[in-house]
Amino acid sequence: xxxxxxxxxxxxxxxxxxxxxxxxxxxxxxxxxxxxxxxxxxxxxxxxxxxxxxxxxxxxxxxxxxxxxxxxxxxxxxxxxxxxxxxxxxxxxxxxxxxxxxxxxxxxxxxxxxxxxxxxxxxxxxxxxxxxxxxxxxxxxxxxxxxxxxxxxxxxxxxxxxxxxxxxxxxxxxxxxxxxxxxxxxxxxxxxxxxxxxxxxxxxxxxxxxxxxxxxxxxxxxxxxxxxxxxxxxxxxxxxxxxxxxxxxxxxxxxxxxxxxxxxxxxxxxxxxxxxxxxxxxxxxxxxxxxxxxxxxxxxxxxxxxxxxxxxxxxxxxxxxxxxxxxxxxxxxxxxxxxxxxxxxxxxxxxxxxxxxxxxxxxxxxxxxxxxxxxxxxxxxxxxxxxxxxxxxxxxxxxxxxxxxxxxxxxxxxxxxxxxxxxxxxxxxxxxxxxxxxxxxxxxxxxxxxxxxxxxxxxxxxxxxxxxxxxxxxxxxxxxx
Length: 481
Fold this sequence. Notes:
This protein is of the alpha/beta class.
């Protein structure tokens, strides 16, 4: 059966356009000009739905929920105007593959994204795994480590899709949550990845110096300006500029930032001729910009220019399941590969129970202290922790079930290793192969038990394992190969 594509758009011309464009490729194209007609047509299986979010008789997001519930394997591309990009981002959170901005100016790009969506709809879980591996590869290269937190994983998927668009993003989050690392990830997975990524902290420089750094200056513009100086907007041409703590910029700087975002041109300090730049802006703040607007400390027009789409990084206390994994990562950075001490169970419990007001940055600093205090130890003990954490050991409570079993498994593995007589020779590759087989069997057995208790429902089983249905299905399928 050829791929079946459903077009849901109340504009007759749009339906005719897609019938001509996609029908010539051998696809079966169905057209619905209303929500009612769409519900009738998707009673038959579809591989892809192109869905306009603005319909006269239905809410596009509600239709998206229905199609994803009835046909989970069907991919969806939502169509929207620039003014409703925020709705498109919400659609991605609901499971849409991506969004398309009207009018369609680049037909090659349009055809490419439709092909990608169809490939995903018709491929097996291998494609999803490949995409996950690619994302992880970029993150490892950037030193961007995350744990099993589903909230973070959803954020990364959305960030990756938005990275392909030429839109301004506002990154929000408390100090130390990793806004610059997220900005670098967005740049690395964007079409601008081969071009410069430059960052500047708007609150770290005085106004006159910040102006020169951002926009450049001409020779003789001020005392000490002995030559032409290109600003960071020019240096990041074709690439990405990260404006950190943009809420700290003065009103005079804000005016010039607005002009660049509106016109794509900069005027150097002391200059008269505008310079054209093609620079994507990612801005970040931990300040409440809405409140600053009310207090007239931040321009409202600039706020709306920056706040096209907002990505919010959660504080570490809202993703406690990631804390021990991140701690181990930061600790390993202070040791040769494979020589870092492991975290004791009570230490891990203390780390997880702490609220981390400084977020990931504070955790990294704490693990640097731990590395200095536990040098030579095989296990990080309570006495290796700073006082603010060591004092929590007594009140940390009993181990959680996963902490208990992880400790038991580590103890068993250490006992096995201690009984091996290496003096008489030992086949390490065979040992590792058998260990992998045993682990695969155990994981499959656990998943099968959870599915049996959940009545075969992956979402319910995934909740018990504190992971996503997609990850659980991938692990289950992988173990059956």
